[in-house]
Amino acid sequence: xxxxxxxxxxxxxxxxxxxxxxxxxxxxxxxxxxxxxxxxxxxxxxxxxxxxxxxxxxxxxxxxxxxxxxxxxxxxxxxxxxxxxxxxxxxxxxxxxxxxxxxxxxxxxxxxxxxxxxxxxxxxxxxxxxxxxxxxxxxxxxxxxxxxxxxxxxxxxxxxxxxxxxxxxxxxxxxxxxxxxxxxxxxxxxxxxxxxxxxxxxxxxxxxxxxxxxxxxxxxxxxxxxxxxxxxxxxxxxxxxxxxxxxxxxxxxxxxxxxxxxxxxxxxxxxxxxxxxxxxxxxxxxxxxxxxxxxxxxxxxxxxxxxxxxxxxxxxxxxxxxxxxxxxxxxxxxxxxxxxxxxxxxxxxxxxxxxxxxxxxxxxxxxxxxxxxxxxxxxxxxxxxxxxxxxxxxxxxxxxxxxxxxxxxxxxxxxxxxxxxxxxxxxxxxxxxxxxxxxxxxxxxxxx
Length: 448
Hints:
The protein has helices at 6-9, 40-46, 48-53, 79-88, 98-101, 104-117, 120-132, 137-146, 155-158, 166-180, 189-203, 216-242, 247-274, 278-297, 302-323, 331-366, 377-392, 396-408, 418-437, 442-447, and strands at residues 22-27, 33-38, 69-73. It is mainly alpha-helical. α15 (302-323) runs antiparallel to α16 (331-366) and α18 packs antiparallel against α19. It is elongated and about 110 Å long. The N and C termini lie far apart (89 Å).
């Protein structure tokens, strides 16, 4: 906002009764009534509304004293803002606007009144301030209620709230996914986690549509990033299995192993959202034996149990994709997945439960803030249901072998395969009758 009549303003002060030639009488319907002594040439110079009211063309200009006293009715909520606008006519705005507006809410109130009265210099100053300062969410909502109908002068403010071009969204997604799937220094882990959260948010449909609709290029880029992540993961596993490790090197490699598992877990979620889990499932299956071997040969510590829990998180996502037909695997691979991961889960769950129980006990007594190891109960339940689904999709002979091993194991309580056992018993009992009704002879039935 430029200087407003600096020469005349040296002799004219806001509210100076001795030099004023016009009174602005501000009134509300609630009875508030203030008389503000002003100068007509300053009002006319800075405000279209007062220029009209004080002109010879105003309908009441011939009434005695009508040009010496301008009555203005306003809402109670706008009263103070109107006084501020009148005061600003007498102020030289030199760029230090933050000292004048006293926050976003106040600047919005002044802007609303200045726009209504036709005060372009004050409008410009308000816009410059609001466009430059940060907004809280409630202030942003108030801005959206206040300025959309004010026209081109407020467009710089609205620019911050306009939808982003799809091309820009694509570029930031593709750039972010590369970073979110990388292995930056530990000091950047918080930034990486934030990037991962925002990438998920961009693809999530909630009250609003997803920010980005994934096309073939997006899906291909995500798959490529996950495949590179798997490449690093496989190289680490090979090194851990082939090279002898002392305690110090083992700790570092297990920590990296866990970091990569966390990234794989997140990558799996992204692939699931995009419905492109196939490569991930095959890569995980190919590495399954080595993954289990790495964690089983590690020194038994609380950290390795935490690593095992992270392995289970990723394995659960893979098993779910297999168990519910998201990714189709041949019988041999489905049988292999049960033989690898069923024993691992069966043995690991009691270890995690015991560590969790131990941590809870320590917290009750020590009241420290050490984070405890937790796996959501729903994950265990979901994993159990997934095993049942995979087993029931196998040939009945393979089902029988798995169920025999389950019933003979001391860890029979988890996973609880009772449902699979019941279905197997029923199917086995009615199998010959069913096949006979289809015209299949008993000899053929016995080979099936």
